[in-house]
Write a structure and sequence with these properties.
GO terms for molecular function: aspartic-type endopeptidase activity. Its EC number is 3.4.23.36. Belongs to the peptidase A8 family. This protein has about 160 residues and is an alpha+beta fold. It contains 4 helices and 4 strands; from the N terminus they run αββααββα. It has one domain. A 4-stranded antiparallel beta sheet has the order 1-2-3-4. α1 runs parallel beside α3, α2 packs antiparallel against α3 and α3 runs antiparallel to α4.
Amino acid sequence: MRSRYLIVYGIGLFSIIADQFTKWLTVHHIPLWRGFPVVPDFFNLVHVLNRGAAFGFLNSTESNWQIWLFSGAAIAACVAVHLMTRSAKSNKILFTALGFILGGAIGNLIDRIRIGAVIDFLDFYYKNYHWPAFNVADICICVGAGLMLLTIRDFT
């Protein structure tokens, strides 16, 4: 029983540290709204602020309601992760998924509470098509969601 908590909260803590450290590096080495190419014509490191959800969803609106909505969603996700950790059958893949989701949700929540937006810095593109910038927390949430899909049969 204790091992499930070690997996979830250990991966969650690792994800938060990786996310916040990479954002700290971004803030201290790349001016806001600037960037530079890492792999020309494919990948830039940038420093942008995102008031919306992952990958810039709802970023362009002018009001502050997104902070409350997405902060509330992150808190709800953390509660759901804890409840699932307590009640789920022993499944290391599921617990790994929950850890990544927890860490990603908290990583972006820290930014929203601290500065009212999320720091994004990974910018992939091809020709004129840019995927919206994202960060390590977004990656953790997506990896966690993907791993959860692998375990979906356990919930049905």
